[in-house]
């Protein structure tokens, strides 16, 4: 019989007939024909995805971590999930063009002030 490539989100590390395995939870792969589990890319730090994920956007922050930006192919980063330093802090994104600066801020009289060490 003819061989068929594994679909997106799956791999098979042996040649011949048999099922393809889904990329494990916490990984994703958007191409066809993956021949090894290492082809499945890891989600950014502090995030996880369901088994068989095909895009980085399926990675979501783990419990206890919070993010301000969705993951996407043009802004794929490990900086999107943080652990909250305290209940008074809010996750904010700086305005403007270019790469956003996201971090924990504390409330102040003039709005929100940057939390030292928040940038990762």
UniProtKB/TrEMBL annotation:
InterPro entries: Growth_fac_rcpt_cys_sf, Tyr-kin_ephrin_A/B_rcpt-like. Residues 2-40 form the Tyrosine-protein kinase ephrin type A/B receptor-like domain. Transmembrane segments: none annotated. It comes from the Eukaryota. It holds the Pfam family Ephrin_rec_like. This is Tyrosine-protein kinase ephrin type A/B receptor-like domain-containing protein. It comes from Hemiselmis andersenii.
